Amino acid sequence: MNRRKFIETACLTGIGLVTGTSILSSLDIASIKASPRPGVIRGNREIPLLLADTPDLQTVGGAYHLTIDELDKDILVVRTSDDKFVAVDIKCTHKGCDVKYDDKANMFACPCHDSRFDLNGIPKGGPAKSPLGTYKTSFKDGEVTVHIPVDGDVQDASGKVDSTKQK
Description:
Blueprint: H1 3-25, E1 32-33, E2 44-50, E3 63-68, E4 73-81, E5 84-89, E6 100-102, E7 107-109, E8 116-117, E9 123-125, E10 134-140, E11 143-149, E12 154-155, E13 161-162
Parallel strand pairs: 1-3
Antiparallel strand pairs: 2-11, 3-4, 4-5, 5-10, 6-7, 7-8, 8-9, 10-11, 12-13
C-alpha cells in the first residue's frame, strides 16, 4: 500500500467513526452502560442499580433499559411495586424488536407486531410463541440488583479467568 492510499483510507475511516458515533448519540435512547460487581458467585453476575442514579425506576411503573456490553445483554428492568422489580430481555422473541412496558395493562408489549408478554415473560397474545428471557432481581437499601447467570469461564474484576466459578 502506498502512502497516498494509506492516508485516504485513514481519513475515510476517521470520518466514518465520527459520523457513526454522532448518529448513535443523537438517537436519545434511555439506557445505561452497566458494569457487574467484581467477582462471581456460582456463575451469576450481579448488576447493581442505585435508585438515586436511575430516576426511571424511582416510581412504580417505571422502566429502565439496561445495557451490559461485556455480557452482550439488553435488559428491561421494571418497578412493579414499592419493593418489587422484574427484569426481562428487551428483544421480542418474534422478530427482535424492543419491547416496552405497558404499565396500564401490567404487561410487556412489542410495538412492531403487537406481541404481548406477562410479567414472567410468557406470551399472552400476538405472533410471539417463545417467552422473553427473565432475570432474578433483589432490592435492598435503595439498590436494585439484577442477577444474570453466566455460562462457562468467567472473568473476575482483575480480568483473570476462573473456570472453577461456573454454573
